From TrEMBL:
Species assigned in the record: Acidianus hospitalis (strain W1)
Gene Ontology BP terms: dGTP catabolic process
Phylogenetic lineage: Archaea, Thermoproteota, Thermoprotei, Sulfolobales, Sulfolobaceae
Protein known as: Metal dependent phosphohydrolase
Coiled-coil ranges per UniProt: none
Recorded GO MF terms: dGTPase activity
Length: 392
């Protein structure tokens, strides 16, 4: 048994199996993968890692799991599976998280596929089998085939609770503060969603309001997002000119089997960009790499945030910019619909009766938007003035 002190939750206790997992090279790699990707470019304190977040998620899952175990809703084996699945939930995160993952997603290979491959092909598998864990049961949790699934990946899951609290602390954006004990104490998890006692409604409202605001202020902050798109673009150049070995997702799988994957981290990406500067590659790409390092990233020239479905015109905007001579590889359009709340998955327990959210009027949850729709167009900073004149 070992205790690790966490700045959010205090002491986190690990058993023998968890200690071996944490000490494995694959898990130690998470110390070198930042939790919020490039958020440190805007919020200098946001240099915390997937390592600390994974421990925090494990702590919260243990807390929820022990509550369910004590009430007889799960057995001892399910409790251990839940704790292990929560500890390993981010083991397949890419360097700089979604910035680099976006390069491989068109190949059908994201962090979930990578996580599964690591569990089946790396040292992690040997540790799990040594302690009697069933990899198939853990995968069932990830695949949504278990009552435990919604605790790790659901409406109010331990993953989101931890990162809202942790990211708020490290960015300094005071929007992710939650009444943690009240939230956990008043929520019940089901395969179809959550049920919250009416006395916990305010805590649940705070969770969703925090989530909405953190998406706007941090996760989709216009400058942070611009740098993530820029890094993805640079990664593609780097692959094509300096490191063709990683062009295909099959190469990442080979790294896992060969034991090299633990060293594919944020620092590897940055060092590879430095190495590209000395290669015989187009000067325009060298300049882009320098711009990234010197914080001269893309500027947003079109920004639309909506809470309802509306027709977009990003392709028209791109065409306008190309017509005035802005190169296509200096234009970064972005569109994403981000889910905030699924009101069909929330039920309220009031006066001993379970009600659907739509039938319970005494809550702000009705007013929280189901999603945010973000559309933006960025251009390399040297073309920003020209682009803004065209679009004004």
């Amino acid at each position: 048994m070992k205790k690790i002190y966490d700045e959010i939750h205090g002491y986190i206790t690990l058993g023998d199996a968890e200690i071996e997992i944490v000490d494995s090279p694959e898990f130690q790699r998470l110390r070198r993968v930042k939790q919020t990707s490039l958020a440190y470019i805007v919020y200098p304190g946001a240099t915390h890692t997937r390592f600390s977040h994974s421990l925090g998620t494990f702590y919260l899952a243990s807390k929820v799991g022990e509550k369910l175990y004590n009430s007889g809703e799960i057995n001892a084996e399910e409790l251990q599976d839940l704790k292990m699945a929560s500890l390993l939930h981010d083991i397949g995160q890419f360097p700089f998280s979604h910035a680099i993952e976006g390069y491989y997603l068109p190949q059908g290979f994201g962090n979930k596929e990578l996580r599964e491959y690591i569990l089946e092909k790396s040292e992690i598998k040997d540790i799990l089998e040594k302690y009697g864990f069933s990899i198939s049961r853990i995968l069932d949790i990830y695949h949504g085939n278990s009552l435990l699934s919604s605790i790790i990946d659901g409406e109010v899951d331990v993953d989101r609770i931890d990162y809202l609290m942790r990211d708020s602390r490290h960015t300094g954006v005071q929007l992710g503060k939650l009444d943690l004990d009240r939230l956990i104490d008043t929520i019940s998890y089901t395969q179809s969603g959550i049920t919250v006692e009416d006395k916990g409604i305010i805590s649940l409202e705070n969770f969703y309001i925090s989530r909405l605001h953190m998406y706007q202020a941090v996760y989709y902050h216009k400058t942070i997002l611009g740098y993530e798109l820029f890094l993805r673009n640079l990664y593609e150049y780097m692959i094509n000119y300096c490191n063709k070995d990683l062009k295909d997702s099959s190469n990442i799988r080979e790294m896992v089997k060969e034991g090299l994957f633990p060293y594919w981290d944020d620092e590897w990406i940055i060092s590879s960009l430095y190495n590209c500067l000395t290669e015989d590659i187009p000067l325009s790409i060298i300049q882009k790499i320098k711009n990234f390092m010197d914080r001269k990233g893309p500027k947003v020239v079109y920004d639309e945030v909506s809470y309802k479905e509306e027709k977009g015109y990003l392709e028209d905007i791109r065409n306008q910019l190309e017509k005035v001579g802005i190169p296509s590889d200096s234009i970064y359009p972005f569109e994403e619909k981000i889910s905030i709340i699924d009101k069909n998955k929330i039920k309220i327990l009031s006066k001993g009766r379970e009600k659907k959210l739509k039938d319970y009027s005494a809550t702000l949850l009705h007013e929280i938007p189901d999603f945010i729709l973000i559309r933006r167009v960025y251009v390399d900073y040297e073309y920003a003035k020209k682009a803004r004149e065209v679009l004004s």
